[in-house]
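Holo prediction — magnesium ion.
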Amino acid sequence: MTKQQTLVLIKPDGMAKFLTGNIITELADTGLILVGSKVVQVTRELAEEHYQHLRDEKFFSELIDYIMGEFHVKRVLALVYQGDNAIEKVRHVVGSTDPEKAEPTSIRGKFGRITKEGVFENVVHASENEKESEREIKLWFRPKELVRTIFPTESKEVKKVEYFWKS
Ligand code: IDP
Ligand code: MG
């Protein structure tokens, strides 16, 4: 048993369909703990970095539009789950990439679809392996946004402008 963290994204189709509650309920069946969560507006840079390994695929440009919310709403919910074999446990409840082939009881089987244009609207992203989960979590989250970290951290002074609410 290895303690792992894994990144889950509720994609813009899941957000547009108000499926966050359903999906988090399904993920609770894994017994994993939620250690980070935030709503993100995905920039082109973030989308292309996240899916960099797929840049040669014919569906790449549509995939970038999809994750940026061009077809639905411009937000995703990013979640980090932690626990023993977290990656495999999450991938199991998420189901296969192709929502038409996914187990009917899996998240993608229940809520996913393929559009007539061929876009896989498969509702969620889930990290594939330890190398990818580390890369993805470091891309999407800062250490202080997670209540537990399993990757080494260091403290650095960052000079930046801080914004406050106007009173
Ligand atoms: P995964 O999300 O199950 O790990 P990947 O192969 O990593 O699957 O692909 C990333 C995403 O790219 C998928 O979740 C899906 O949104 C999209 N995708 C993958 N294969 C296809 C395809 O054949 N047609 C259209 N979209 C695809
Ligand atoms: Mg993948």
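READOUT: Strands lie at 3-10, 33-40, 76-84, 113-114, 120-121, 124-126.
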